[in-house]
Structures are given as structure tokens and as C-alpha cells.
Amino acid sequence: MVLYFTNKKKWLVRVSADEKLHTHLGYIELGSIIGKEYGASIKTSLGEKLWILKPTIIDLILKAERKTQIVYPKDLGMIAAMTGVSSGSIVVEAGTGSGVLTTFLANLIKPNGHVFSYEIRPEFIEIARRNIDRAGLADFVTIKHADAKKGFDEKNVDVVIIDVGDPWTLVRVSWMALKGGGVFASISPTMNQVEKLVAELVNAGFVNIESLELLLRNLEARTGMTRPSMRMIGHTAYLTFARKVLSDRV
């Protein structure tokens, strides 16, 4: 659950009867939370009130263990919208990393879909599995310790999502895995990667190719003084999307 004090001060905890959560606001006997409903409050040893909230998928993602750069919520939302991933979708992912995108996708495709994720580094797989388990989504994910460049085992899938440094090398194996009209998506940190990727998508016969970047700026909403925040989340990644059409070009 989430123990909430402010937007910038909240804790994701697993409740255990014999453990304490120590914070700068005082400590909490976690066992005292057992039996309380979401939306209730609890006081720390220093008398500060925290609210008990059910974690959202974003809470789980932002608190995930990580050794790699993660895909941020602003990009996750666009990926979901542009690919149409939903319950029942079959998704192949290349580049599991810390499993943040994998966790988000698994939450979308449950209970009738599945995510097949390829990762070549075993240390990343261990971290990803812990994050996915923590979110309670392990039943909807299969992680494969394999090189995606050698091809995907899955065929006729709805979506392929690529998060590797050389995404253009996976365009043709993605085409082979996708069903007709299926969606290809890629996450890239640099424009040079996008250029090479788009050129390969065109050569492979993909259509409806789009590349974009999202910028996020919060508002500081106060009566009579509302204004944009002085800080914002700028560049995180470039997103590229394309659709498979049937041809003999691959």
C-alpha cells in the first residue's frame, strides 16, 4: 500500500505485523495498519497523519528497483494509446531492462493477454522478475533469456515493442512476429537512432510511421495564483510507431 503525506513524500510499503517504517516524520508500526480500509489515516510516532492508499500501477513503477533507465509515465501513456494494448493483447517486448514497461503492459493485458519479453542480460532479468512479482503480475509475463535479433518465437502477435540501442536491427524480426495490421513501437533516446529506425521501417514495408516526443509541465494550482511550474520533464525518449501491412518485401 501507499502511505501518503504529500505528492513528494509518500512510501510504498508491504504491511507486516512485526515491522516498522521509519521516516523523518516519525515511525509507524506497520501491524497497526492491518484491518484499516483504503482512504483511512494513521499517525506516526511524532503525531503526523499519513493516508492509506491503494497503489496505482504508476506508484509501483516509480518505486521499482532499477539498474537501467526506465520508461516514464508520460511515455507509457502514449505507448498504450498508440498501440491499443488492452486486455487480451499478445505483446512481444525486446529489452526487458528493469521490467517497468513490462509491468505496465502486463497490467493492461490482464487477465486474458500475455507479454513475452526478451532480455540478454541475466542480471536485468532478476531485477525485472522481482519488480513484476511485487506488482502481482507474474502470471501474465514470460521473460526469455534470449537474443531477440535471432528472432521471436511468437507469431501473429498484436504488438511488438522495442527498447534497445539499435532498434533497426529488430525491424525485420518484428515484421515476422506481427499479425497483419499489428503495431510496432520503439523507444529511443537519440535522434540518430530514430533516423536509422525509420529508414529501416520504410525499407521493410511498414506504413503509418510516426515519431514523436512528449514534454510534460505541471501546473501549480493555487487560488488566484495558478501558474505553470518553473520546472518540467523535458526529453526522456523519442517514440516511433508503425503498422505492418502484408507484402513480400521482407
Provide the succession of SSEs: EEEEEEHHEHEHEEHEHEEEE
Oligomer: single chain
Helix content: 10-25%
Q: Which fold name corresponds to the CATH topology of the largest domain?
A: Rossmann fold
CATH 4th-level superfamily of the largest domain: Vaccinia Virus protein VP39
How far apart the termini lie comes to: 48 Å
Mean pLDDT: 93
What would you note in describing this structure?
- This protein has 250 residues and is of the alpha/beta class.
- It folds into two domains: 2-55, Vcp-like ATPase, Chain A, domain 2, CATH 3.10.330; 59-243, Vaccinia Virus protein VP39 (Rossmann fold), CATH 3.40.50.150.
- The protein is built from six helices and 15 strands.
- Helix 5 links the parallel strand 10 and strand 11.
- The longest helix has 13 residues, at 122-134.
- The radius of gyration is 21 Å and the shape is globular.
- It starts with a strand and ends in a 7-residue tail after the last strand.
- 34% of the residues are buried.
- The model has no long low-confidence stretch (mean pLDDT 93).
Secondary structure topology:
Elements: E1 2-6, E2 9-12, E3 20-23, E4 26-29, E5 41-43, E6 49-53, H1 57-62, H2 73-83, E7 90-94, H3 100-109, E8 114-119, H4 122-134, E9 141-145, E10 157-162, H5 171-177, E11 178-188, H6 191-203, E12 207-213, E13 219-220, E14 227-228, E15 238-243
Parallel strand pairs: 7-8, 7-10, 8-9, 10-11
Antiparallel strand pairs: 1-2, 1-6, 3-4, 5-6, 11-15, 12-15, 13-14
